[in-house]
Amino acid sequence: MSEANVGLTFITCLLVGSGIGLLLGNLEAGGAVGLLSGILSIVLFRKGKK
After folding, report:
1. Which site among 19, 46, 47, 48 is 20 to 30 Å from 1 CA-CA?
2. By the 8 A CB rule, do 42 and 10 touch?
3. What are phi and psi of 3, to 5 degrees?
4. How far apart are the C-alpha atoms of 1 and 12, rounded to whole Å?
């Protein structure tokens, strides 16, 4: 997977996490969950690349 797709996946995770946080009334927690899932997706994509 190209680096552009990995970046888009990271941003998507952040946006989805923030959206869920907005729906639940806790934007910071949703952003933190989105950040964590985005970082995990980058790690998984890099691990699969080897």
Report:
1. 19
2. yes
3. -65, -30
4. 16
pTM of the model: 0.81
Distance CA 13, CA 37 (A): 6
- Residue whose structure tokens are 């869920």: 20
Q: What are phi and psi of 25, to 5 degrees?
A: 85, 15
pLDDT digits (tens, 9 = 90+) for 19-41: 999 999 999 999 999 999 999 99
Find tokens 């996490």 and name the residue: 17
Q: Please, are residues 29 and 1 in contact by the beta-carbon 8 Å criterion?
A: no
pLDDT of residue 19: 94
Looking from the CA of 6 toward its CB, the CA atoms found within 13 Å total: 14
